[in-house]
Each structure stands twice: as C-alpha cells, then as structure tokens.
User: What shape does this take?
Amino acid sequence: MAQINDNYLKLKAGYLFPEIGRRVAAFAKENPGAKIIRMGIGDVTEPLPPAVTEAMHKAVDEMANRATFRGYGPEQGYDFLREAIAAHDFRARGCDIAADEIFVSDGSKCDTGNILDIFGAENTIAVTDPVYPVYVDTNVMAGHTGDANEKGEYAKLVYIRTTAENNFTAEVPDRKVDVVYLCSPNNPTGTAMSKELLTKWVHYARQNHAIIFFDAAYESYISDPSIPHSIYEIPGAKEVAIEFRSFSKLAGFTGTRCAFTVVPKNLKGRAPNGEEVEIYKLWNRRHTTKFNGVSYITQRGAEAVYSTAGQKQVRDLVSFYMANAKIIRESLTQMGLKVFGGINAPYVWLATPGRMTSWQFFDHLLKETNVVGTPGSGFGAAGEGYFRISAFNSRENVNEAMGRLREKIKV
Ligand SMILES: *Cc1c(COP(=O)(O)O)cnc(C)c1O
Assistant: This one.
C-alpha cells in the first residue's frame, strides 16, 4: 500500500470553521424561526467594482477572437499587471521594487503555503499567537513541527503571544529564529504594526539572518497614515523580507482569485555547504514549474484596480466595510465591552465579558441574539477569551446584529 505523508496526521482536524458550522446548523434545526446573522466570515460580500468587470468583459471578447486570443501567459504574470503593481503599490510609496520581483498568483493563501517548498526543514519558524491558521498548518504538512499539545501548540514552532496585556504587539523574540510570519494589519486581531515595531523586526532579521514572511492582505484597510503598507517602506527590508499581497480583500477578488508575492533579488538564503543562494531564483523556478499563471481575464481585471476609476471604486469599497467596522466598534464599546482592532482592519477583536471562554461566548451570542462570530481560541491558545467580529457584511445586517447585542447581551 502507498505510504502517506504522515505529517498530515499531526494536524488538528480542521476544527474551527467546521465546528462553527456544526453548532450553527444544530441551533438552526432546533430554532427554525431564528434569523441567523453571520458575522464570522472572513469573506467579502460586495460585488466586484465596475472598472474590474468592464476590463474583464473586454478581455473575454479578446479571448473570443482569433486575432486577440491568448493561450498560456507568462507564469509570473503579464508585464502589464506586474508594472502596474510595482508603480502603484511600491514605487509610489518610495519602495524600490521592480516589476520582475513580483510574482502574480491565484492567492496569498496558496503562496504563504507554497513558499515553504523552497526552504529547508531545519529552520526554526516563529508565528504569532493568535495566528492565521494557514501558516501553522502548512508548516505541519511540510514536516517542520512536532506533535501538537492539548492546547494545540506544535512542538518546534516558536509562538509569539499577542494579547491585550502587550497591546497585541508581536515583539521580537529573545532567541534566534530563521523564519517569522508577520501579518499586518492582522487577521484575526484587527491590529496593525507600527513603523517602529516593523523597523525592530527588520533589524532583528538582519542581525539573525532571518527571513520575514510579511502578509499584507489587508494593507488597503489602513487608515492611520503612520502605519506602513509594505514592509519595504522600512530601510533594509529588501534583504530580509518576502511580502504577500492579494486582490481578495482589496477589490472583492475572493472568488475571482488574484494575488502576488514580492521576492526581492537581494534576498539570500544558505545552502547546506554554506553557500549563499538567491531566494528569487528558487521561487522563480518553483513558480514556473508548479504554476501556469493566472487567467488573462483575471489579470486584466486586477490591472483595472489601478486605473483612476478602479482606485476610486476600491477606496469606496474599503470605506464601506470600514464604516461597518466603526459601527461595530462603537456599539460594542458603548455596551462596555473591551474592543480592539477595527480601525486599520475589517475585524473587531473583543475580550469576552465575564471571563467566558471564546466558545462559551459563541454559544451565548448565538442563543441570545442569533448572531455568529468567530471564537478567538480557534486562532491559537492566546486567542482564548477573545472573539472576532467581521465587518464584511451588509449595513442592514450590521445594524440589526448590533441592535440585538445591545438589547440582549449584558456585560
Ligand atoms: C484573506 C487573507 C489572505 C488572502 O488570501 P487569498 O488566497 O489571496 O484570497 C491572506 N492572508 C490572510 C491573513 C487573509 O485573511
């Protein structure tokens, strides 16, 4: 019989979202009249901006015509998109990133997992706790961890705890790690890293020859002008960081699929014989071998995000969700809850009232208000006692949900 990759057996059975689904389904069955509002989702709800769909329609027509039809495109993405990204997302912010350092892909989720292909198994890997679960699970699958303990923490991973006690600050560790995942603005805590903190991390990485995997999927939600949108705004970051970006939350592409990863040419890793190797070359090799490019139609849609009309439309989209976040923040604060995030990210992170566990609060909220959120403990041990509410929803649902909470939840 064929052997399996037994690292998969170490994974905690995809617990969080299936368990939410199970409890909501059971509740709905017992309470058929309940009007359930889902505030747990990390998915956008508004349609694609018109500039994007117009560009995609035009691209469809090109594909229907022999003279303008296109087959395989460059695996790394079309130049028109890579140039637009380099100009708008990086050069406009003073970051010296070239178009050919940008690798267009079908998602940041995939990229943050796939990047492990080009790194060795002996690296010490650090993640924050709570954390976007993809970073952890992909390391487990790749065999970079030991088994999980009863709290769900994997042996060999270094956990950097971020809680209200340290203001959700991912401090540099006092030991050496080789790779660290940073997500800012953060999913799930909704908080963002300051320039000072990111500068500390870049110094740490340079001193320790570490590489930072910087996930900036929510950069378009930053409202505070002092917060960096890209890690390359920090001097010296090009030698130590890979950045992951996505059109998913920026332009409603969660179902359309387009993202990109920045791998600067000055970034180096080490071979077992001590020789320095350009990470860029390895990633280019990996990407061109295992990936065959994002569809032309999708890339034209993504390019249109950078047009004048597209820029205005995505700003409006983000503003819409952030107005939801403001309503959520203010309602919960008025109720006397301790809330975090929701200013530079579409997530509000709250401390559960009365020392309830995350799941106790989940059940309480579902029963009393028929509102569904996400238990913080599902994102890691340090998320226990916290709860995530997402701003991705209609205004009507947000207002209705907050009204129910004010009426039914006693703090
Ligand atoms: C939504 C999200 C992404 C984007 O994923 P895609 O695969 O590009 O849709 C990346 N990182 C985090 C933390 C996210 O929440």
